[in-house]
Structures are given as C-alpha cells and as structure tokens.
C-alpha cells in the first residue's frame, strides 16, 4: 500500500464510487460553490518580523491584481477566507487583512495551533481572540437573529478533537463541544490525508456528535439533509478527497488528491474536475456542489501558485467550463457564505444559491 493511512478512508471512497460515476440528473444548471480556505500563518517557521510583514503585504498587494480579472455568475470576484492563527496575533497583520476584505475579496476566520491544552485554556484562547477580531478589527460574522459573534474554524496540525494517534497538538477530547459553546458555526479542517488525523467519513457535509471520553469524535457523523433538523455538536464541511489516476507516483500509483494548493502542487484543470466530480452536497440537494480547497498562503514557495499564472489559469478554467449558465453556474464564496448556503439547502431552499449567501450569518458591518 502506498500510504500507511489509506486504510482509514479507502473503504468510504470505494463506497462512493457509484455516486462519482453517475451523472447528476438536473433540469437547472448545477451550481458550483467554490471556496478557498487558507491556513494563513505569517509566522510559519518563525521568521523575523520583516518577513512576516512581507508575507502579509504580498497578499494585500497581489491578490487584488489577480482577482480583478475574474468574476463568477453573480459578478463577484474570487473570495479568499483567511483562517488566521490565534497564537500569531499581531494587530497590524489583521488590520491589513481587514482592509483587503473591505475591498470585497474575502473574510477572516479562526485557526489555532495548540498542544497539551486544557478545556479552560482552549476556551480562554478562543474567546479572547473572538473579541479582538470582532471588536478591534471589525472581523468575524454575527447571527442575524441573536447578533452573537460566530466563527469558522480550522485546527492546526489537523489534530481536531485530539485526533492524532500520538496525542500531540491538541490534548482535548471534548473539543467539538467547546467549539459549539464558543460560537463556531462550522469546522473546515478536513480532509487531512495522508495524516492519521483523517476521518473515515469523506467528501461529506455532516454533523459530528462529541464523545468527551474519546478523541476524534468527528470520525463519523450524520449527513446534513434537506428537511431534516440538525443533530450533533458541530457542522463539518469537508473538502474533496480522492485518488488522482492522472497524476501517479513513480508513474504507477495514483496520488492522493486532498484539495491542497501548494507551490509543488498547483491547481490544474484536471484537479478542478476531480474536485467537482466528488459531488459534495447536502443530501437531497445534489444540484448545489460544494468545493472547498485549502492552502498555506504565507509560504513563499506557494506565492506563484496562489497569486500568479497557475491560479489565474484555474479561475479562467472554472469561469469557462463551469459557468455557461446552462449546465453550470459558478459562485465564489467565503467559508461563511458556504455555511449559509448549506443551511439554506437543509431548510429546503432551491434555485440560485446566490440569494442565500447571508441566510443566517452576516458580516459585522452588515448589521
């Protein structure tokens, strides 16, 4: 076997084979919801302060130059969600990202790296960071009814709910409960293959129920379904996980496709087709296809893949092949907007998902 952790998810992948092979029956265009979730870490590899600032400035200066040439079916430019690490907080970096978001290019949510933590320590970190992002920087979103601050989450080192076999980079078996209690609207950590933190459940949008007596409670869960009330503690929105038979290791074995865009693995049309072909959707609403890819945007070797020709080519391909208005409509969405559209589907809404970008959660300035 070419990967020692393939056994975790391969059974699920095989079971989904018929879904991948069967074309979706539809009378309206298929809507492609495309989201980029960035593990945005200016302090990656602990550089000097000048390097941190240069990394952030690269995004502030180059992303608008890329995005201004591209639009989806709704006239929106590409959207980027910056999951910023709590432990790397610098107000000047968040102010810079806030200005980029104010220009209409994305939103900020929460990322966290921690190790050997306690429930009390986790809650203190998250609540403090929520207040800083919301009150000092005008970031994060709020529930339209309760006006409570909400956040999307990505766990550092993939170790959500203490899911590493060696117990490192978390330490909390009731993390899903804590996320719910602190206002997390959804988790966007997965997929994590080839890591051992990868779940059995793949290519899914589902509710996970916490079991505080054991780690990795999100290994399985209940699919979000049209007309069915939510259950569990946290909504999991997974990105695509597949085998890429057109990209083989040593020319023989198919490589794992986990939706990561990196310097040594730039986005391509072949990869985009594979992402979409996983048909990740809310059960009962297959016409809305959710594609969440991820990246580590502050790594210099990935700048060209994310801000240069490879990304420009990807966006052009999506806009050409998946936005003809007849067979497909393309929608660039943030993590928050993706969540809202999931919840709209769950509630039985249909038609153009563009009208549900602010279905439950809105940006702070919208209130």
What does this structure look like?
Helices cover 29% and strands 21% of the residues. It is of the alpha/beta class and 367 residues long. It has one domain (6-19, 30-366): TIM Barrel (Alpha-Beta Barrel), CATH 3.20.20. Strands 1, 2, 3, 4, 5, 6, 12, 13, 14 and 15 form a ten-stranded mixed beta sheet that branches. It has a three-stranded antiparallel beta sheet with strand order 8-7-9. A two-stranded antiparallel sheet has the order 10-11. The N and C termini lie far apart (53 Å). The mean pLDDT is 96.
Search tags:
15 strands, TIM Barrel, 3-stranded antiparallel β-sheet, globular, 10-stranded mixed β-sheet, alpha/beta, 367 residues
Can you lay out the helices and strands and say which pair or pack?
Layout: H1 10-15, H2 17-21, E1 30-39, H3 49-67, E2 80-85, H4 91-102, E3 106-112, H5 119-136, E4 141-143, E5 149-155, H6 175-181, E6 184-187, E7 205-208, E8 222-223, E9 234-237, E10 242-249, E11 253-257, E12 260-261, H7 269-277, E13 288-295, H8 303-307, H9 309-321, E14 328-332, H10 335-346, E15 361-363
Parallel strand pairs: 1-2, 1-13, 1-14, 2-3, 3-5, 5-6, 12-13
Antiparallel strand pairs: 4-5, 4-15, 7-8, 7-9, 10-11
Helix pairs in contact: 3-4
């Amino acid at each position: 076997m070419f990967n020692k952790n393939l056994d975790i998810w391969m059974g699920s992948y095989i079971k989904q084979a018929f879904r991948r092979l069967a074309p979706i029956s539809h009378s309206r265009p298929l809507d492609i919801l495309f989201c980029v979730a960035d593990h945005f870490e200016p302090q990656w590899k602990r550089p000097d302060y000048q390097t941190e600032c240069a990394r952030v400035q690269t995004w502030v200066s180059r992303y608008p130059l890329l995005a201004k040439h591209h639009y989806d079916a709704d006239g929106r430019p590409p959207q980027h969600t910056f999951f910023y690490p709590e432990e790397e907080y610098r107000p000047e970096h968040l102010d810079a990202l806030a200005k980029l978001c104010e220009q209409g290019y994305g939103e900020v949510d929460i990322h966290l790296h921690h190790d050997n933590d306690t429930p009390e320590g986790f809650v203190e970190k998250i609540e403090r960071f929520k207040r800083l992002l919301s009150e000092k920087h005008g970031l994060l979103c709020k529930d339209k009814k309760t006006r409570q601050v909400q956040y999307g989450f990505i766990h550092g080192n993939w170790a959500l709910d203490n899911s590493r076999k060696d117990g490192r980079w978390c330490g909390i078996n009731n993390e899903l409960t804590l996320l719910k209690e602190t206002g997390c609207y959804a988790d966007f950590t997965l997929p994590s293959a080839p890591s051992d933190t990868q779940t059995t459940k793949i290519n899914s949008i589902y509710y996970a129920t916490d079991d505080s007596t054991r780690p990795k409670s999100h290994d399985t869960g209940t699919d979000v379904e049209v007309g069915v009330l939510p259950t569990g503690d946290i909504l999991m929105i997974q990105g695509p996980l597949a085998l890429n038979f057109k990209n083989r290791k040593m020319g023989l074995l198919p490589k794992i496709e986990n939706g990561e865009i990196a310097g040594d693995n730039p986005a391509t049309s072949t990869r985009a087709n594979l992402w979409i072909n996983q048909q990740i959707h809310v059960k009962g609403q297959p016409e809305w296809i959710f594609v969440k890819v991820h990246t580590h945007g502050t790594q210099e070797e990935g700048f060209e893949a994310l801000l240069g020709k490879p990304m420009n080519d990807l966006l052009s391909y999506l806009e050409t092949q998946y936005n003809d208005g007849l067979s497909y409509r393309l929608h660039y969405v943030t993590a928050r907007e993706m969540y809202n559209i999931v919840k709209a589907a769950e509630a039985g809404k249909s038609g153009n998902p563009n009208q549900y970008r602010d279905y439950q959660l809105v940006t702070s300035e919208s209130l």
